[in-house]
Amino acid sequence: QVQLVESGGGLVQTGGSLRLSCAAFGRTFSSAGMGWFRQAPGKEREFVAAISWNDRTYYTDSVKGRFTISRDSAKNTLYLQMNSLKSEDTAVYYCAADSAFYSVRNYYSDTSYDHWGQGTQVTVSS
Description:
single chain; mainly beta; seven-stranded mixed sheet; four-stranded antiparallel sheet; 11 strands; about 0% helix
């Protein structure tokens, strides 16, 4: 059974940094697309960042230059390094994975992902 487990969330002040991790269990995702989404209270879930099967990266405009997505295939783990955090980054962050290898997807859409983690809370205080 595939399981994605996020960690690394917490409370941080404006301008601070956090690194989220998403450990995958049950199968490897080193050749599949993976992504991060977030959902703030009262808002729809939105795309944050993604990494394709061949390690191309994609970001929503509001996090470009501040967030970095990466993966460690040996550890089967996805990361999101978040710097210069703002109050508007406050949300529950979810990692997601595509079940298909070497597949070209619209990584910005949550319908491109088959597996989801339970989420980790990120709160940025001013």
